[in-house]
Amino acid sequence: MTPWSDGYVADVAYIPGYYRQQAPPHMALACLLGGVDPMLPGATDRAHYLELGCGHGIGALLIAASNPAWQVTAIDYNPAHIAGAVALARDAGIGNIRFIEADLATFADTPDGRALRSAEVVSLHGVWSWVSPAVRTGIVRLLAQSVAPGGQVHVSYNALPAWQGGIGFQRLVREAGRRSGTRSDRQVTAGLQVARDLFDAEAANLRDGRLVSQLTELLEQSPIGYLAHEYMNAHWAPCFHADLQEALAGAKLDWAGSANLLEAFPDLTMTAAQRAVLDRFDDPLMRELVKDMCLPRQLRHDVFVRGARRLSDAARDRALSDVVLTLTVPASGFDYQMDVPAGRAELGPAFRPMVEGLERSPATAGHLLEGQQGRSNPAELVGVLVGTNQAIPLLRPKAPNDPAAMRLNLALSARVRSVVGGEVSGGLASVALGAALPATRLDLFVYGRLGAGESITDLDRWVEMLSGDVAEDKQGRLREALIRTAEMRVPIMRRAGVL
Ligand SMILES: C[S@@+](CC[C@H](N)C(=O)[O-])C[C@H]1O[C@@H](n2cnc3c(N)ncnc32)[C@H](O)[C@@H]1O
Description:
Elements: H1 24-33, E1 48-52, H2 58-66, E2 71-76, H3 79-92, E3 97-101, H4 111-115, E4 119-124, H5 133-146, E5 147-158, H6 164-178, H7 184-200, H8 210-213, H9 215-221, H10 224-231, H11 241-248, E6 253-258, H12 266-269, H13 272-278, H14 284-294, E7 299-306, H15 313-321, E8 324-327, E9 337-340, E10 343-346, H16 351-360, E11 363-364, H17 365-369, H18 378-387, E12 391-393, H19 403-414, E13 427-430, E14 435-438, H20 441-451, H21 459-466, H22 475-495
Parallel strand pairs: 1-2, 1-4, 2-3, 4-5
Antiparallel strand pairs: 5-7, 6-7, 8-11, 8-12, 9-10, 13-14
The structure holds S-adenosylmethionine (SAM).
S-adenosylmethionine is lined by residues 6, 8, 14, 17, 53-55, 76-78, 81, 103-105, 125-127, 130-131, 135, 229.
C-alpha cells in the first residue's frame, strides 16, 4: 500500500466518470422533493462549487464548464489524478476551476484550507465510506468551515444494511488479494477469484448477499480501477444513514432528501405492507431506516443543507411547477414501465402526451400538467421523469453553450477511440442545463465528429475509426448504433443546449 495514502488505494487510478447526482440542479430537486428550500445560485452569481475526493476531476470540470460565472475547487490527494485533471483543464481552456492536491484528513487545518472560500454547493462522491476515520473527521471539519449558510452538500456512500452481506466478502477479497501480489489491480482480481472459488465450494457465509450472486459480472465486466477502489481499501466501512447524519451534524448539516429521486415516493418503491410499517413513523431517521431495510440499493446518495429551511407543500409545488424539463431519451424509447418491489408499475396514459410534448420542446412541469384532469402533482411528475433518468432539469432554457463548455466536450470526445475500455467520461457540458447531459461513449464520439464538421454521410469512416476492438461480425451493430445515436441522441443534445 502507498505510504502516504492511509490505507486507501493509490497505486492504481480510479475510473473517470460523471454522476448526475453531483449536478447542482439535481441536488436542488432532491431538496425540493424533501420539502427543503434549495439555495441554488443564479447563472451570474459568483458561486463556489467544491468537490472533495474529485478523482480525475471530470465531474468538477463539467460543472465548471456548465457554469462559467461560478468558481469550482476540486480536491484529491492522488497526484496522478490531479495531474490528469489539470492537464485536461488546460487543454480545454477551463479557467474557472482550481485543482488542489491535498489530504482531506488535514486540509482544513492548513493555510489553504482555512482560506478556502465558502461554498454554496459541495459534493463527495465515492469517498465517505471508503476512507479512514481520520479522513472522515477531517472532512467534517472542512465542511464545518467551508459550507455557506444554506449551502447544499451531496454525499454518496455504501449503505447498511444493504451491504451487510458484503462485509465478509470485502474482507475476504482484500485479505486474499493482499497476499497474492503487489499492485492493487492484480490483488483485487486474485481476491475476487478466491471469493468465486469459495462460493462455488458452497462456503456457508458466501451464500447470502447480493454481491456474491453478482460475482461473475464483477469479475468479467467491471473496470479494474473501479474494483480496486471499491474492495481494496483498508478502512472500507459501509454505514447507516443515521450515523452519517450524526457525523455531519458536526458541520451543522441537515438531511434534506435523497438524490435518488424515486426514493421520495414510497408508493413507487415499496410494497403496501412495507409502507404500512413506514407510515407508523414520522421521524425521518426512522423512516429512512425502514426504507433502508426494504430497498435493495447499496449506494445511497444523500443531500444535506446547512440550515434547512422547510417549505410548505404549496410553496414546494409552486417551485416544482416552475422546473423546466427536457427529455434525455427519445419519446419513442421512453420506458413507461418501472421496476418496483411489487413488480412492474405502468406510468399510465396521462404521461404519453406530456412525453410527446417534451419531445417537441422543453416545458415547465406546470405547463405539462395543464389540462391533465385529475393530475396536479408536480412532485410526482418531476420526480418520476428525472428519477427514471428520462428527463433532466433545464436550468437556463435557451442559454447558448459557452465556448469553454464546447472545448471541454470536444476534448472529452477526442478521448473516445474505441467502443469499449480506455477513458470514459459520461457527460457533455451545457450552460443551459447548468450541468452535464449524461452521455455514452457513442454520444461523445458523434458529438466530436459533428464538431469536426462531419455528418452521418461520413458513417463508413466513423465505423472504421471505432472498429479497432470490434469483431468483424459485430461491425454491422456498431454501424446501426452510430446511426441511432446520430438520429436519436443529437436532437436530445440540441434541446439540452449541448449543441
Ligand atoms: C472512489 S474515488 C471517487 C472519485 C470521484 N469522486 C468520482 O466519483 O469519480 C475516491 C477518491 O477519493 C480520493 N481520496 C481518498 N482518500 C483521500 C484523502 N485522504 N484526501 C484526498 N482525497 C482522497 C481518492 O484519491 C479517489 O480519487
